[in-house]
Design goal:
alpha/beta; Rossmann fold; GMP Synthetase, Chain A, domain 3
Length: 523
């Protein structure tokens, strides 16, 4: 997959397997410059020159430069005349490859907060975050020492002629107090980038990407889940090729929130003036995942069934050639390294890692390079209602990944009822819904004993979850509830939700885990 962005200033972030590589990409975008991640072992000269970066950033990573066959940057990239920032391992491999030396970290590792002895004019504050074992022990020709810490001599080094900056600390982490300032200094003062990443420019690029992909005659089936991503996708497609070449289809897989499919159809019809064709396929999906406990298998089965439905609908509506999906960058990052690189797969998303190899329809994914907040901003640029743009995301596999293990119909029904009570309670408190990025309930398939009146009752458990985040790459559990809110919601769910055969909830809890070490969803 080559970069869809063609007109903006672009920064190439080289992935050496560091856990914060996507955070680096995000920090660059926050500065108003487009960035994209490529794995170190996919950096062919043809691909890099086609990308045409204004600047290059080398990420950290778990390897040691002193190991045999350690990851390296292709030498042609040092000779391109492009300013470069090396972070942690990126600094070390830059130094080693350009004639300096790196020493083992045995006994000299540095982890946590540190202070630079000199930092102006690169950044505004001296507090930085270290996480390294090895360290640069001798500078390459052309480099000068800029700053040290008490435990790291070459904490910041710089080659003024080539505009190569190396830092042993992590400016992308919020623990580095003015890391954003350092990144801006590199981008604007050293690399000469322009902050041309605006919502208008992102919309123009998304529209152009669709036009390049489908040409003058291609027709697109727009997969409309009803979430912000698919709605923005529909708006981009409509602007790019007109409503006559777009057919919007929503597949109700039987694991939606209560009333979700009807609401989706209403939104597309009233707000976008684009009819939505709703396919009721709950029995098919639930039969396909019956007895499947492994979450990755569930996601892949659901993904394959979606494609099956979409390809059937494409034939019904005049053989639509392309499938439009609202895939966004976090989906891609968690499902697979964007360019097949060293970053670890967290989980498959039904629209990325869960796609079947036999699908015929080429994908159109104009939002694939965007984080969630950028998609929301793009929605506002398209004129979508603010209440809808702020709507919490809902996963494509729906409640099927909020029932850990094998899914049964009655569990989905009970969970949908519990989820509705929870979300309506949040919406009833002024301003509360807007403070939360995503909230939902999870069915716990564990039997417990309860008491209702004078009777012993055996029932099930559930977990409530709510998180705060800007980009869903990392999340924190929401912890600003009104007094007694959670206790009241748990009680209402236990009292009011009754499943088939009198099934009840008798236990309820709140999930306080962040991401990492957890993920936003349970599966």
């Amino acid at each position: 997959m080559e970069c869809a962005v063609t007109t903006l200033n672009k920064v190439l972030v080289v992935d050496f397997g560091g856990q914060s590589v996507q955070l680096i990409a995000r920090r660059v975008r926050e500065a108003g410059v487009f960035s994209e991640v490529m794995a170190f072992d996919k950096l062919t000269e043809e691909r890099v020159r086609a990308f045409n970066p204004r600047a290059i950033i080398l990420s950290g990573g778990p390897a040691s430069v002193l190991e045999q066959n350690s990851p390296q940057l292709p030498m042609f990239m040092y000779e391109m005349g492009v300013p470069m920032l090396g972070i942690c391992y990126g600094q070390q491999t830059m130094a080693a490859q350009l004639g300096g030396e790196v020493a083992s970290g045995a006994g000299r590792g540095e982890y946590g907060a540190a202070k630079l002895d000199h930092y102006a004019p690169m950044m505004g504050r001296p507090e930085v975050w270290m996480s390294h074992g090895d360290h640069v022990s001798a500078l390459p020709p052309g480099f000068a020492l800029i700053s040290s810490t008490s435990n790291c001599l070459y904490a910041m080094i710089y080659d003024d002629k080539r505009k190569f900056l190396g830092v042993q600390f992590h400016p992308e982490m919020t623990h580095t107090k003015d890391g954003a300032g350092l990144i801006r200094t590199f981008l604007f003062d050293l690399a000469g980038c322009e902050p041309d990443l605006t919502q208008a420019s992102l919309l123009d690029e998304a529209v152009a990407m669709v036009q390049r992909t489908v040409g003058d005659t291609g027709r697109v089936l727009c997969a409309g889940s009803g979430g912000v991503d698919s709605a923005v996708l529909a708006g981009v497609l409509k602007r790019a090729i007109g409503p006559d070449r777009v057919v919007c289809v929503h597949v109700d897989h039987g694991m939606m929130r209560k009333g979700e499919s009807d609401m989706v159809a209403d939104i597309f019809t009233r707000h976008f003036n684009m009819p939505l064709h709703v396919v009721r396929a709950g029995d098919l999906f639930l039969d396909r995942i019956a007895g499947i406990a492994d979450p990755e298998k569930k996601r892949r089965i659901i993904g394959a069934a979606f494609i099956e439905m979409f390809e059937a609908e494409a034939k019904k509506h005049g053989d639509l050639q392309y499938l439009g999906q609202g895939t966004i960058y976090p989906d891609v990052i968690e499902s697979t390294s964007f360019f097949g690189g060293p970053s670890k797969v967290i989980k498959s998303h039904h629209n990325v890692g869960g796609l079947p190899p036999w699908m015929r329809m080429p994908l159109v994914e104009p939002l694939r390079h965007l984080f969630k907040d950028q998609v929301r901003a793009l929605g506002r640029e398209l004129g979508l209602p603010d209440w809808f743009v702020r709507r919490h995301p809902f996963p494509g596999p729906g409640l099927g990944i909020r029932v850990p293990g094998a899914v049964q119909r009655w569990q989905v029904q009970m969970l949908a009822d519990a989820d509705e009570i929870y979300l309506k309670a949040i919406e009833a408190v002024p301003g509360l819904y807007e403070q939360i990025a995503q909230a939902f309930a999870v069915f716990l398939p564990v039997m417990a004993v309860g008491k209702m009146g004078d009777n012993r009752v055996e029932g099930w458990g559930f977990m409530l979850r709510a998180v705060q985040t800007d980009d869903f790459m990392s999340v924190e559990p929401f912890d600003n509830w009104p007094k007694g809110f959670l206790k009241d919601v748990v009680k209402r769910i236990c009292m009011d939700v009754v499943g088939p055969g009198g099934q009840r909830f008798v236990r309820g809890g709140y999930d306080y885990i962040g991401k990492p070490p957890g993920t936003t969803e349970w599966e």
